[in-house]
Design a protein that fits this description.
The chain is an alpha+beta fold. The protein is built from two helices and six strands. It is globular.
Length: 99
């Protein structure tokens, strides 16, 4: 069963989110681009407090680690994104995607 990853970044807005995705060659609006192996689902939004929250569904934590080490980590560093204030893996008990 895939695993859920929840990340929350303090004070990171849509502009930084879009800049990092552009650097990665990913277009979230079109749902296209150089998507990482093992990623099944990605959603992002901002809270009323101005924090960016990302919720992803991965085949495994190892797939996420490979993406973080090879591509996402360097892109976040280049954009000056701080460590998340929340990073939590949650076991999946069900998935429904009627898109």
């Amino acid at each position: 069963m895939p695993e859920i990853l929840i990340l929350e970044f303090a004070g990171i807005g849509e502009d930084v989110y879009h800049a990092v995705n552009a650097q990665l060659g990913i277009d979230p609006a079109a749902r296209t681009g150089d998507l990482p192996a093992g990623l099944r689902h990605h959603q992002a939004g901002t809270t009323a407090a101005g924090n960016l929250v990302v919720i992803e569904l991965w085949d495994s934590q190892e797939a996420n680690t490979a993406f973080m080490e090879s591509r996402l980590g360097p892109a976040l560093g280049q954009a000056g994104v701080p460590e998340p204030v929340r990073a939590e893996w949650v076991p999946t008990i069900g998935v429904i995607e009627p898109w």
